[in-house]
Amino acid sequence: MHTLDVLVIGAGVSGLACAFDLSRAGRSVVTLERAQQAGGVVGTLEIDGFRFETGPNTVQASSEAFRTLAADLGIADRLVVSSGASSARYLFLEGRLVALPSSIPGFLTTPVLSFGGKLRVATELLRRFKQPAGGVEPTLRAFFTERLGPEAATRLAGAFVRGVYAAELDELGAESAFPRMWRACTEHGGLIKGVFAAQKKKKPVLPGPQCKSSALLSFPNGLRELVDALASASGTNLMLGEEVRTLARDGESWVATTAGGLSLRARDVVLACPAPAAAALLDTAGLPRPCITPLERITHADVTLVHLGFRAVDVPGFPGGFGYLVPPDQVGPEAPRVLGTIFASSLFEGRAPTGGLGVTSFYRSSTATWPDAEIAREAATDLARALRLSSVPTPVVSRVLRWKNVIPRYAPGHMLRMATLESELVRMAPGLHLAGSYAGGVSVEQVIARGRAVAHRLRNGAHSP
Fold it and tell me: Which of 74, 105, 333, 417 has its CA 20 to 30 A from that of 435?
């Protein structure tokens, strides 16, 4: 049996980026993916002239990892910038959409917060942040409540966290879920001071279009272009429909066996698969429970995406912009079930046919068992409620996608547990490396950076994280 340099298990963006870098460095690599297509949740659907993303819709223009990877793949010149109107964002409040403020005057006059709530946010600049006693990581609710007050924590941070993690403030740890924000706060004494400090830093010139760092990027045909470029890159050696069932240590190498009977030997194995799958493989390798339990304990969000395409005339008063989120304090019979809705056709050109508009709504697992037609009607109803339409518009196209265990929840202590686990793997299972979205962040930027960081360590012959 021929021995590879590296076997990558999982062909999401992290695994593909890792394999791409290793193959460019001259390593022999094979990437195995149990699904019939690569990319994980990242992908793009074409439905009767409408274009929808199967997962993330955009990437921040400030994303160095994303833009550098695009350049290395030779596709940075295909990056497109979001429309100027897409900067408008809304919250669903008391039965209507309210624009989020984008300036100090706008903050002073916005109905999103009460006068007391605004005052508490404004005084954050005067209150120096102190690390929690005993080194215990606070929940996001505790962190944002201390910094911004309970109203802004629930209404602003609560809505934002729903949009990123499909989770609630109490479910996530402040440092684990948003390490960059935590670091800026601890280094500069507060959130606002951290923002000011970041604005003063000289921004690097990144590949692709020159635009504001707050702009959003994609490709003309959607983020699937990134996946296709990675999957077709020379040396990636991608094999689809191959689910790895067992891992076993054999001398200085690892042997992986798939459900189809394929066996591969490699000196290093990169687990770029979801946490439950990684835990199961570590179990087959005979590793002790302390190496498996941390992965099994990670909870995940189940998300249902509803893509709807309408005739624009059937949705009068459509505001455009990025979309809206529903804060957790919006409850009752008149509140929508949806966590948020992205105005997909307003982000980039070519996302809807002439005279059409497309939206993507996302729901939690409580709707997982609903029939597609029922949840599509619910999404159209929620949109009508948010836009205060007199009747529910009928979509001309609809598509429902259900993702199970899709977004890992970074509970308090998550970062420490993952660091400890990686140290244990170095000691007890040298040659095994973690690159899943539970290991270094859930955004496109973060999973790319994680995959490339693992590849960098392997190129340099390092085993420690």
Answer: 74
